Amino acid sequence: MDNNVKNIRVFFSKTGRAIYISHLDLYRLFQRSIKRAKLPVWETEGFNPHLYLTFALPLALGTAGLCESMDTRLTEDVSADELVRRFNEALPRDIRVTEVAEPVRKPTEIAFSEYEADFECDDAAFDAFLDAEHIPAEKKTKRGIAELDLKQHLTVLERRPGYLRFSLPSGTELNINAGLLFDAFEKISGTEIYSLHVTRTAVKCGDGEIFR
Amino acid sequence: MYKDKLDRILLKVQKPSRYIGGEPNSVEKPLENVKMRFAFCFPDTYDIGMSHLGMKILYSLMNEVPEYLCERVFMPLPDMEEQMRKNDILLYGLESLEPINTADIIGFTLQYELSFSNILAMLDLAGLPVFAKDRHSLTPIVCAGGPCCCNAEPIADFVDLCILGEGEEVNLELMRLLEQCKTEGADKHEFLVRASRIEGIYVPALYDVQYNDDCTIKSITPLEGAPAKVRKRIIADFDNTYYPETFVVPFSEIVHDRAVVEVLRGCIRGCRFCQAGYFYRPFREKTVDTIKRETVSVCETTGYDEVSLTSLSTSDHSEIEKMLACLADYSDAARVNLSLPSMRIDRFSEELLNRIKSVRKSGLTFAPEAGTQRLRDVINKNITEENIMNGCRIAFEGGYTAVKLYFMLGLPTETTEDIEGIAELCQRIIDMYYSLPSRPKGKGIKISVSLSTFIPKPFTPFQFEPQPTEDVIKERQKHLMEVINTKKVQVSRSHFDVTYLEAALARGDRRLSQVIYTAWKKGCKLDGWTEYYKYDKWMEAFKECGIDPAFYANRRREYDEILPWDHMDLLITKEFFVRENRRAHEAQTTPNCREKCAGCGVNVCTGKACF
What we know:
The complex is a heterodimer.
Chain A: E1 6-14, H1 23-37, E2 53-55, E3 64-74, H2 80-90, E4 95-101, E5 110-120, H3 123-131, E6 136-141, E7 144-149, E8 155-160, E9 163-169, H4 179-189, E10 194-205
Parallel strand pairs in A: 3-10
Antiparallel strand pairs in A: 1-3, 1-4, 2-3, 5-9, 5-10, 6-7, 8-9
Helix pairs in contact in A: 1-2
Chain B: H1 3-9, E1 36-42, H2 46-49, H3 53-63, E2 68-74, H4 78-86, E3 105-109, H5 116-125, E4 141-145, E5 161-163, H6 167-184, H7 188-195, E6 201-202, E7 207-211, E8 217-222, E9 230-231, E10 259-262, E11 264-265, H8 275-279, E12 284-285, H9 288-302, E13 306-310, H10 320-334, E14 337-339, H11 350-357, E15 364-369, H12 373-378, H13 385-397, E16 402-409, H14 416-435, E17 446-453, H15 470-483, E18 489-493, H16 496-506, H17 512-521, H18 535-544, H19 549-553, E19 568-569, H20 574-585, H21 602-606
Parallel strand pairs in B: 1-2, 1-3, 3-4, 4-5, 9-19, 10-13, 13-14, 15-16, 16-17, 17-18
Antiparallel strand pairs in B: 5-6, 7-8, 11-12
Helix pairs in contact in B: 3-6, 5-17, 6-7, 9-10, 13-14, 14-15, 17-18
């Protein structure tokens, strides 16, 4: 790798219509946006050169995110402010770059995410669901469907009718999609959740610090 | 606006980003500033429709007018349709997320006959009656454009009007007329009568069609001052015609996921089976400067890393080498790949090969169309065996070990010898490959033969010809499989079921509207998709309507028969098609337009020589 390249971490939000962009499509979207913005992003060397972009933590389809991040490398110096401006000119409205900075922590240090959800459902049933001793859920893995007890992993941070703030494990060790919690509720209670909006509000490392 | 309703269903469907809009470069206009709304419908899925160049051009063109909004609308797949119906969501435009039944014009682009049933499906999903006669208010006006409109008779009962030819100018004329009629408080009928005065506008309801006892057409009579012949619209100054600076870039991967620049329109070749070759006449090309400017613009504003130089026959551009050299300067520096579809094997050279080789090495595709010289002469392909061998040799010497060859089965005058000719030609290509000292070492050759079935189309010299019957086609397909005795050749063939319907619809008359309606009622839609195509239901529909598809697909027409599309004027005379048909039966070729004018008539209409 060239010595002059500089690692940067791009923080962005993904909300509104953009929550339907899959992780794979997000890569392509950033790649094309970088081309449109003519940003000096380093290309991999090899038979099939492509822009070097890596996303620390995929966001589930349908979940919004306020603190998503992507690591890349620049071949020329561009100020953080200018990068933010040029990214945002090229990106669709519902994806906004909020900050560009030098990476502080390693993506492997990510341990959990915090979410906010608002929804309509039978709130008494939802409270009972949260208070149960076990919250069995099914997680799709490469090897098939794995059973797990969400109760062991879920931390409720704030709860009021139609609203829940919570955290779940994220990262390389164990990654739990926030949607599992609501699927589990529908399955266990036999009732439906309406107008569910889930937003990832923070990504944190094992020591409780924000992933920077 | 359906945003909230969509939020409730989109996670339940496959690839939801195609149903929500908001892609880079898509148009945003607050509806309160919009005077006229045009819902541009592609009657197939997003992945296919978004790949279509005509839609990109006309979408951007109309949106240049500040008070007009052109929206994109596609056919949802069954999972999405089910969710929409369950949640009372009508078919909506991707720009406004508002239902299209409130648009002023709903326009369908018809690229292939198998999308006809989707028109009904989409109108119904929009909450509108499918028959034109049942839609009484002035708006929305339902119209259709695109190549299938050269014979729009099968869909005559569903659309209010058709646009014949190129839409760059006439679409806006139509919008202005409708805007005026709205202001004046005119009714739908008055609007249609006035629209029929615009060149290129065909209002089916203003023509009375009478039939003979044998079901052929007796007469086509224009009513209320509609023109006896509807004349196709063409853009006179193609080099200066509108071309979008940018395209909408989809979130998800679509069929042709790349930038596109149209380098020429029309075709000089005159292949006798090819409708597009006549529909898009006269031949017009853009200058190298224009092509370069448009290439840079679409690449830079989309961020695509591949640009396709598209047309019916790109290698026929008079300055192809200069064009490629000029574009290579840009594409190398910007790390953009050039791709050249529609390359003729006789125009293929080492230089061309090197230009496209800097790009990823996908397979090369050529279209000899027929296995013997005699049959290639019948269809006027104007390619010799030497051209084919030479083209393949250049490819092999350039490092390719796989070629794909297109052939058509069931062509007029075809014999067993022509079928065997395909196998023999493949064998000679294989032998040539192994005789090359410079062939890629240690690698075998692979020939993929793609065998489609001949479908006679209106406005071609073969419009009079029958499509061979099921028995004959299946027998010939079987015979070809028997005479190919090497694993180096792999054959894929089209399904008879699909080509038969396409043949019936392509040369159909108005009586087919009832068949299409009946088939749609039986659940037919997305007919271009193998997994959704219901041949049995279509055949049931024909039977219930008392109509035999063979009448349209397998019958030879006399030269003097009134054809269902005779009131359309594509600027090419019927005498020319008759003349070309006769020459075909004599295996006489006709030189390409650049070599010698064949007298099709288009230059008489435009008032100037094509070259």
